[in-house]
Amino acid sequence: MSKCLAGGFVWALVLSLAGCGFHLRGNDAQFTGLPAIYIEGEDIALLDLLRQTLQDAGALVVEKAAATKVHLLIRSETLDRRVLSVNTSGKVQEYILFYRLDFSLGDPGKAPIQTIELQRDFDFTGTDVLAKEDEAASLFRQMRRETARHLLRRLQAQLKSQQ
Length: 163
Description:
Helices cover 40% and strands 30% of the residues. By secondary structure, the chain is an alpha/beta fold. Strands 2-1-3-4-5 form a five-stranded mixed sheet.
């Protein structure tokens, strides 16, 4: 009896989730008919992340610039943190983390510079300095991944507008 009740509960849960429109988050929409993309920049870790994000979305990333007309040039990447608030003794309580990516997308000499900027608030306590530094590094990695997804959506929009 309890197996039947548990099975019924599971089915009711599955049907209610399906009925409300819930679905697991997947990859961004796949590119269709996309020309090959060449990525250029200084930071190898960032280039690898961008390459992987584009390939996961179905884009073809080429190794030679002559093989395509679509170039993604990473001009600069900036990581910064500024004090947001201090306590009564003048010690930092909160930082604001900034991430900025300047890039151009399109023909190498003609494409305008575009920017993606993100920021996060970050609580800081002086007692857990090492843990908080690790947390800040983790937030910067998350911001970098989010920027890669933003860049992917911009690429999709720009290529749709050119068609």
